[in-house]
Specification:
alpha/beta; DHBP synthase; Rossmann fold; 2 domains; 7-stranded mixed β-sheet; 14 strands
Length: about 400
């Protein structure tokens, strides 16, 4: 393994790394159904008893609910996205007006005792699950401090964004620590995506001849919490002089297990991946960033749930909203950090997505031109591609 460290002035300091790791541990714990404590207030220090105990509805089991109750000041509120709340309360998860991201709005629901059990909680969180609702919850006007951070933590764990929260009871923080529960500051959760992206380090590189691109190398990047890894596929010499407009072809490609590996016909990801590498090989240079952001950042399990909702008549955008996610949850600072580490200072971006151009430019990437990357419909993904144009503004003409 060839370890190539970044310059030290680009690396986060030790304290920052510890705080990043604390968030990663908290996300790992809630994925196992263990409650965690979010301390403090946004932009402020942690108070003696300031904070929330948080337990995701998706992974809540008997043990987790008992631990939650032991340190909570009240039975707890359920935080969900606006569209999911509408469906739970007897409304509809139909499309909102274009341009509105329901992921920005959270609703707090008060649960009756019959709903504080594993299966009802999962039914409240997951529109694709069997609906077992012995009663309806009641909406609450005021969300608790830290609500956005609690949902953000569930998203980091790639869980459904629906969490049970409560203020700590007197002495609850000490009791939580005595029980070995993770505590994490609200500011660290909210800063985690960018801190993790900015701290990516280049950890391994190898020559990997590819079909259609024999002169290819793969470079692996790892986050400071030693969690998710992202890959850069380098074709030829992308930093050499003489490239058109002085910039290599670059494709920022989010991993797609179903399309890239299995050849799913529901999307155009597999043909886009292979087509991009072929174009780079034809030109003699290029970079394909393969980012671990499945399903536009919602993860594989949630993408499958979104597919199930699409089979019931929703499009890809409405399905994400119904699950509590925004239409696109990706973080393109990851790509900017990788390009910087590779010495790529300007790019011709191979994409049909104008938002991707804007996002990379906002992260400091010099996008000298957008290069179209249109894949013809296959008879199965026609509606999906149409939604990309109609709802997400992609250029596919």
């Amino acid at each position: 393994m060839n370890h190539i460290p970044l310059p030290t002035d680009l690396l986060p300091d030790q304290e920052s790394i510890l705080r990043i790791r604390a968030v990663h541990r908290a996300a790992s714990d809630i994925k196992r159904g263990t409650p965690v404590v979010i301390e403090g207030e946004p932009g402020g220090g942690a108070g003696n008893e300031a904070g929330l105990v948080v337990l995701p509805a998706e992974t809540a089991g008997a043990q987790g609910l008992a631990e939650f109750a032991a340190i909570a000041a009240e039975p707890g509120l359920l935080l969900v996205g606006a569209v999911r709340a509408s469906a739970i309360l007897g409304g509809t998860a139909a499309r909102l007006e274009d341009g509105i991201e329901p992921g920005d709005g959270l609703v707090a629901l008060r649960l009756v005792p019959d709903l504080l059990a594993t299966r009802p909680l999962l039914s409240l969180a997951d529109p694709t699950a069997e609906q077992i609702l012995p009663a309806r919850p009641e909406p609450v006007a005021d969300r608790p401090e830290g609500a956005a951070a609690a949902i953000a933590l569930a998203k980091l764990a790639r869980l459904l964004p629906a969490v049970l929260v409560s203020r700590l009871r007197p002495g609850g923080l000490a009791l939580a620590r005595a029980r070995g529960l993770v505590t994490v500051h609200i500011d660290d959760i909210l800063a985690y995506p960018n801190a993790s992206a900015a701290g990516l380090t280049r950890v391994a590189e190898a020559r990997v001849p590819l079909e259609g691109a024999p002169d290819a190398r793969i470079v692996a990047f790892r986050a400071p919490d030693a969690g998710i890894e992202h890959l850069a596929i380098l074709v030829g010499q992308p930093t050499r002089a003489g490239l058109p407009l002085g910039a290599p072809l670059v494709r920022v490609h989010s991993e797609c297990f179903t399309g890239d590996l299995l050849g799913s016909l529901r999307c155009d990801c597999g043909p886009q991946l292979r087509g991009a590498i072929e174009r780079m090989a034809q030109e003699g240079a290029g970079v394909l960033l393969y980012l671990a952001q499945e399903g536009r950042g919602i993860g594989l399990v949630n993408k499958l749930r979104a597919y199930a909702l699409q089979d019931r008549g929703m499009d890809t955008v409405d399905a994400n909203h119904a699950l509590g996610w925004a239409a696109d949850e990706r973080n393109f600072l990851i790509a900017a950090t990788m390009l910087d580490a590779l010495g790529v200072t300007a790019v011709r971006l191979l994409t049909n997505n104008p938002d991707k151009v804007a996002a990379l430019s906002a992260c400091g990437v010099n996008v000298v031109r957008r290069e179209a990357h249109v894949i013809a419909p296959n008879g199965v993904n026609d509606g999906y591609l149409g939604t990309k144009v109609r709802r997400l503004g992609h250029y596919l003409g």
